[in-house]
Design goal:
Blueprint: E1 7-9, H1 17-31, H2 48-59, H3 69-88, E2 123-125, E3 145-148, E4 157-158, E5 183-184, H4 191-197, H5 200-207, H6 212-220, H7 231-237, H8 241-244, H9 254-271, H10 274-277, E6 301-302, E7 311-312, E8 326-328
Helix pairs in contact: 1-3, 3-9, 5-6
């Protein structure tokens, strides 16, 4: 994402097979490198890949449904790609998950078909897993729920425990958040969740938002009706229990492609009016404003743990200056590739 020349980030589905494999190979490389986070700081960290999950866990209560959300995750993606490139020889740019393509049939998508060029398939069927409810509506569950059963990331594990999203409401990081509690990463692919929330008209609604508040309301606001999640939430919940974990969701590599699409939408929205939108902020600095906190400002400093030095929000908001020089190859309502 960084560099003196503008780089282009493309949809995962539009990549050639060799390019897809280069990405998964590089991610697997990070999973086999030693961590940089000291074990006494985060006993659950067992690899360089886990450094990123630990950082996300540690900051969860400061980077969701609030002012820093978009900028913090933009820099997080930058650091992830930098590690892939510098430490594992990745040759490409971080791809994105183009939500409208195959939103009606996740299992058939090149992202989740379980082939050697995918990010792995569904999970093994887990009959004991209950269906997901958002409090108003209970979604029919998918056909997985267990460990990833096929593809490059079959049976991968994470060193951190499963978190319940209700823990967000406590407003404090659980004392065992970074402890070692290994288990496999699980999936339960569910197009019933992705379909209504990832249609082209939802993407269009993001891009034509007239303010950052309106953009964030579409991206991560409350449900519009009982069976319709926001596009950010739907990307997590449609993949299953591993991605539904707001703390440790980076344990599943698809996290990075989902958030690359979020960054794509934000970048596209910013570029439509660089003068007024590049540094537009809205929201406080705590997740769901719990506990109540000040409004985010360009001088607000966010933390990246052992991944990088702290950064002001104003340093990490422009995709085409400072640390960053990238764009997304994206056309609204474009047809999916063969």
């Amino acid at each position: 994402m960084a560099g003196t020349n503008v780089s282009s980030n493309r949809s995962r589905s539009a990549l050639k097979p060799a390019e897809r494999i280069d990405f998964t190979r590089s991610v697997q490389c990070l999973m086999n490198l030693p961590p940089k986070t000291p074990i006494e700081v985060a006993p659950g960290v067992t690899s360089r890949y886990d450094d990123f999950t630990a950082t996300h866990i540690n900051n969860t209560l400061l980077i969701h449904v609030n002012g820093p959300f978009l900028a913090w995750h933009r820099h997080f993606l930058y650091l992830f790609q930098k590690a892939l490139t510098d430490e594992c020889g990745f040759k490409g740019t971080l791809p994105y998950w183009n939500w409208p393509w195959w939103s009606d049939d996740l299992l058939s998508s090149p992202l989740f078909d379980g082939s050697a060029t995918s990010l792995g398939g569904d999970g093994y069927y887990n009959a004991s897993m209950p269906p997901f409810s958002n409090g108003n509506y209970t979604f029919p569950r998918g056909h997985g729920g267990g460990c990833i059963k096929e593809g490059p990331f079959a049976n991968i594990t994470t060193g951190f425990r499963n978190f319940k999203n209700e823990e967000i409401l406590a407003g404090t990081l659980p004392p065992d958040a970074l402890d070692y509690a290994p288990h496999c990463v699980t999936r339960d692919l569910n197009s019933v969740i992705s379909s209504p929330s990832h249609q082209p008209e939802v993407v269009h609604e993001l891009l034509v938002a007239d303010s950052i508040r309106a953009f964030q309301s579409v991206m991560d606001g409350t449900v519009r009706n009982t069976s319709h999640l926001s596009p950010h939430s739907a990307g997590h919940w449609s993949v299953g229990t591993g991605m539904q974990d707001q703390y440790a969701s980076p344990s599943d590599p698809v996290f990075y492609l989902h958030h690359s699409m979020i960054d794509n939408m934000w970048a596209q929205w910013q570029l439509r009016d660089r003068e007024t939108r590049t540094f537009a902020l809205d929201g406080t600095v705590t997740t769901l404003n719990n506990p109540p906190s000040q409004n985010a400002t360009l001088d607000w400093v966010v933390d990246f743990g052992w991944l990088d030095t702290p950064k002001r929000l104003g340093e990490i908001m422009d995709s085409q200056s400072g640390l960053y020089c990238y764009r997304y190859e994206y056309k609204e309502a474009s047809e999916k590739p063969c």
